[in-house]
Specification:
By secondary structure, this protein is mainly α. Helix content is 51%, strand content 6%. A two-stranded antiparallel ribbon has the order 1-2. The termini are far apart.
Amino acid sequence: VNRIVNKPYIELPEYDDTADNELVASESWNAHKARNESIIVDEFHGLYRSRMHCRSCGHTSIKFDPYMSLTVELPRAPTELGKTLLSRLQMMYFLREKIKPTRSTEMPTVLGNLPAHWWGENEDKDILLGVLKYGYGKYDPIRTDEEYCFHQRKYSNVAQLQYLEDVVPSSEVKEDIEEMDETEDIEGERKTFENIEEDLKVSEPSLSQDDKVVIEESKNTDQTEKDLSIPVVWPSAGDIGKRIRSIVSAFMRNLSTKASRAAKVELKRQQQEERSRMKSEKDGKRNGLTRKEKQ
């Protein structure tokens, strides 16, 4: 941006209180322009005058220093797209840094409806691995990748599928916004990424009869869908996204439960150590008194 390639060395003289301000400002600006010349300098740079007076010797120094001023208007509230992208970043953060799914990862109990009647635990695991590999919303390459179980099936609606891979699907915007609204604190301010772990913590739910049916259906999918040659319907982007969020929530529920149990075990261990220490001190004092009595 700067059109000055070889910047000259310029040392400005020191001006006292008797110098003409306009002359000093002009010389200071010309010296600044000799080293900095661009549209940014023309639009956003300026000079501010500083005056320094020494009470001991009475000397006064005048100087004009360059500064840059750029006013940026910040929106009062995030837009719907901004909320959605923030929700995606939170989910991808937990997926990459907390869950870290692999082929050997044990899948948790996932609540909610399945994206399709043929969807099972293998599909849950492969969709997470595919999202880590290709990114959120990139369901076309996930479906055709031979590394995942989806490529083994035939789909009757592939020709009608049109995924906007670089744009957030409108069918998922409302759901993501509702999830983000749940992460607001009492004062209505958005929480930062430092405490998003608290945002996705879900209390252990009680399973209703319908949930148990859905879970059992998910586990028994492999037995009910043996024939992979029969064309099936590939679920919509909104249904897949909702399933991914349910899986991540289930993982976070398990992690929260494990962390709570570990904290209780650690607290119990510390209490036992404290009781042992107090008992040792008490026994030591008693032994000391006994020796004095014998003497």
